[in-house]
Each structure stands twice: as C-alpha cells, then as structure tokens.
Amino acid sequence: MFAVENGLQGDPRLQAISDAIRVIPHFPKTGIMFQDITTLLLDPVAFKHVVDIFVDRYKHMNISLVAGVEARGFIFGSPIALAIGAKFVPLRKPGKLPGRVISEEYELEYGSDRLEMSVEAVKSHERAIVIDDLVATGGTLSASILLLERGGAEVVECACVVGLPIFKGQCRLKGKPLYVLVEPNQLDELTF
User: In Gene Ontology terms, what is one molecular function of this protein (predicted)?
Assistant: First the structure.
C-alpha cells in the first residue's frame, strides 16, 4: 500500500521525499533507472520526513524488532528502531557477520544475491518489520521475511521508501503487507 492510500494523500512530506531522490539511468546496468537516495540523505528535512512517517505508522503496533536490509535499510531502520523502542537487526551480505548465521538466497531484477542474519538476533514470537529503501521485484524482502521467520519472529509488515506502482510481489512476500512512501521518479519529470 502506498502512503497516499493510507491517509497521507496531499501530505507535502511525500512530495519533499520524492523531490529529494535523484534518478541515475542505466545503473548498475543498462535498463535500470536507479533511484539514488544519497540526495535524500543530504536533505535533513526530507530524511526526517521519512523517519517520522514510518515512526508514526509503527509506534503503536508493538514492534520489538526492526530489520534493516544491507545497506540502505540500515540507514532508515536504525533511527526508526530507536524511536519506537525496538531493537535493530541488520540483514547482511554474505561473510559480514561474525558467529553463526542463517542465510537466504534471492533474485534481483539484475542478478541474484544472499542475505545473512545472526542466529542470536531473533527470539521466538517477536513482532518485526523489515525496512529497505526500494522494492522492485520483492526478492530481497521475501528473503528477509524467510530469515526472520526461520528465527521465530512474526513479520508484521515490510516498508520501503520507494516502490514500483505496479509491484506484483505481494505473493512473494508471503501475504505480508507492504507499506511504501513514494513511487519511483522518472527522468522526464526531473530538471537538471
């Protein structure tokens, strides 16, 4: 569900967030219109809007765990976790976590990858949300859900700053709700 469908229609914060994201064409490969959040992070007002909207959504949902997908999910997930009084669990690329890990492979729109999570990170029946910057195919979020559920958590929802309006990955998300702030920017809408 897009934020505009959930009571934020006309909220100027959403436009500020969208305006702060730049598009890099053909990155990391031809045909990909990369939604670069670096410019969003350089705008403290827009960055705060992202965190505030997610905090408002999750602060009364008894969330005890915020999982952030490497690496941009860390940027948004950590302040959200602190603000709602939850722990933060990083979901990392292979070989980045010490100790025992569990892993899950997934497909990207331009290849495949794998996520890992520390086996000690999750306790049974913890209520979790997964945070990432963008959802395109749902592969990364699906792998995140599987990792958290294998650890015993109940995944309540996935949340992304940017999401494709034609996202068809709901079935890949095992029926978990998806909350998205803005649609991707297009080059023809930008001025340089």
Answer: adenine phosphoribosyltransferase activity
